[in-house]
Amino acid sequence: MNKVQNNKKNKTSIIKNKKLITFKIPATSANIGSCFDSVGLALDLYNEIHIYSNENSKKIEFEIIGEGENEISKDDNMILDAMKLVYKKLKSKPDKGYTIKCINRIPLSRGLGSSSAAIIGGLLSANYILGNKLSIDYDILNMSVQLEGHPDNVSPAILGGIISGVVIKDEDFKYVKINPSKNLKAIVAIPNFHLSTEVARNALPKEINFKDAIFNISRAALLTSALSSNRFDLLEVATDDKLHQDYRAKFIHGLKDLFKQTKNAGAYSVTISGAGSSILSLVKNDEEIIKKVSNAMKESLAKKKINTEIMVLNIPSKGIIIK
Ligand code: HSE
Q1: Distance of CA 36 from the midpoint of ligand 1 (Å)
Q2: What domains are there in the chain, each with its CATH number?
Q3: What is the pLDDT of residues 231-262, one digit of tens each?
Q4: What is the whole-number distance in angstroms between the Cα of residue 273 and the centre of ligand 1?
Q5: Which residues does 251 contact at the CB level (< 8 Å), separation at least 6?
Q6: What is the pTM for the complete model shown?
């Protein structure tokens, strides 16, 4: 085949493999200290899913770029598993081939909702391919909460903002959305090691004592009220917890000192993000404070020889973005 013919062929395949839709799914940070398994927030760090028609195949093919590109299987992954649940629910299957291109920015197994993003991405993709029969803010939300198992991790990615919610068996997810203040910034310290949610959950006790339950309930109530009324001065007390962070501290060396240094540098609050290994601090949207807190977080972890990436993020009021 000569060069001209070759170019013609490439051009034809580009036209046939047309981009159909893009989903942008934000990272999340769950728990925020006292609100274990019940409150989470969205972060403006997005995984992107681009769906292309694929005339050359009858299957769903994956292209993965960025976080996990060498670890995530293209034949068996969380996106595909979630897609299969939509096929089952709608009793239908794609009758054409598609390419799903994932641009991953949310680090894996760091407590920033990468699994939630994959689950939501799979549900949205299959729903799109099968004709958008499911609603996003009800069907996809409830399916993703069931699938992920931790509503605090998955719901803010769909709904945006700060979500306080509860799952009751055989009922819909009940939640309230708190709109984030522009005066609040999130600083996330992402250590260079993975921590699986399963391992972090296995470190928790089977039972807790009454005093610890009251300790958390009172702070959790204060936290949601403080966030809704922009009483950021209360966040330090309101994020305190006795249900999970002390038990998980053994996975993040120097956690106590990190918390102390971060608060001393001016953060409103500092907590383990989700099940870890990342750390979330909420701070005033002030350049000087952001710089001081970022440095304190990085230096505290460096003292324990943990290399850390620092990201300064917003809490977007919108969840998934569809283009
Ligand atoms: N709330 C959950 C936990 C989030 O901390 O275990 C992880 O998905």
Answers
A1: 7
A2: 2-178 (3.30.230.10), 184-313 (3.30.70.890)
A3: 999 999 999 999 999 999 999 999 999 999 99
A4: 9
A5: 195, 199, 200, 203, 276, 277
A6: 0.93
